[in-house]
Amino acid sequence: MNLKYSVGLDVSSKKINACMSCIDEKQKVIVKSSTVISNNNKGFKTLQDWVLKHVRENIPVVVCMEATGIYHENCAYYLFEKGFSVSIILPNKAKKYLEAVGLKSKNDSIDAKGLSQMGAEQCLDTWQPMGTFFYELRLYTRQHQNVTELKTVLKNQFDALSFAMHQVDPVTNQLKETIILFDKQLKELEKVINNHIKSDAKIAERVANILEIKGIGILTLATILAETNGFELFNNYKQLVSYAGYDVIEAQSGTRVGKTKISKKGNSRIRRAMHMPSLVVIKCEVKPFKELFERTYNKHGIKMKSYVAVQKKLLTMIYYMWKKNERFEPNYIKSIQEKEQKSFSLFAFEKGVKNSPNKIEAAQGKHPVNDHSKFPLC
What we know:
This protein is of the alpha/beta class. It is 57% helix and 13% strand. It has helices spanning 41-54, 73-81, 91-100, 108-121, 132-161, 169-198, 201-210, 218-228, 237-244, 268-283, 287-300, 303-324, 332-350, 357-364, and strands at residues 2-11, 15-24, 29-38, 61-66, 85-89, 248-249, 252-253, 256-257, 261-262. The strands form 3 sheets. It has a 5-stranded mixed sheet with strand order 3-2-1-4-5. Strands 6-9 form a two-stranded antiparallel sheet. Strands 7-8 form a two-stranded antiparallel sheet. α5 (132-161) packs across α8 (218-228).
């Protein structure tokens, strides 16, 4: 008896390789059918008919696909609108799974088969599309980052030319003009981002509250909101910390104890956006962050490690202020920690683990799972 059908999709810019598998009550995965469709609306309709043709009634169907830039978005949204349960897998997670099951070769059909098997064997989180407002905001902020990177490259080339043995005016003038063009585009994008945020009164109010923190600018906050879909899919700050790659991982085996460090397995754009604000809040001596920096620096003597701790705390602060729509106060972090500790202790007491430290730690969730599949992808 079949328990679940799983459709694995390997998406490219022009075509999609699809493979359907099913898992029975003995946990055996069997491939039912494979096909190739075009990556357009006509192909999506063909895919839908193909899936329904092979599925029996009252048996659930899941669709699994890799995050491939933006090529997967139209297909995922189409299937989501048609009522399918869609899961989007990060490429590194899919790659590790295929290696674990012993697949040595790699091509589109093998990847589709592996994704199909993965969906059948595992209970994956369901994907949800981003809201239109934050999707557009993400396009603006990512374009701003792309233009900034291009400008930096050309500016470095322009500076390097000043040390050249022979100066060539046409090349130098072209670089100057392109840099000026990029400056103009960046100003236009900043204006568009500001207007986009002001177009929604509720979002503009929350943004204004968070901007009370010295060091947090409109571009930084816009990037964080865009990459997290306005924190819509996070139930607690631990999920956000894990999604941003700030969760701490250990390297311990037997008597060997390695270094602890942040995983960096998450949205790198968020960590990039939090770098400069962490420096500014320390320079401006914003009390809670300054105290955190000094306390951690006195402990291990590594400045960058302390700055990372400040980045994590800043991100957590932004999350709570956004969720509660509150203005920044110097004692805000302390009140948050007291409320959390109180709620955790109450939870542990209700579960009958009041006198068990290990169980209390489990209740507090001190070791979040690195599962980003249901969050907005980069």
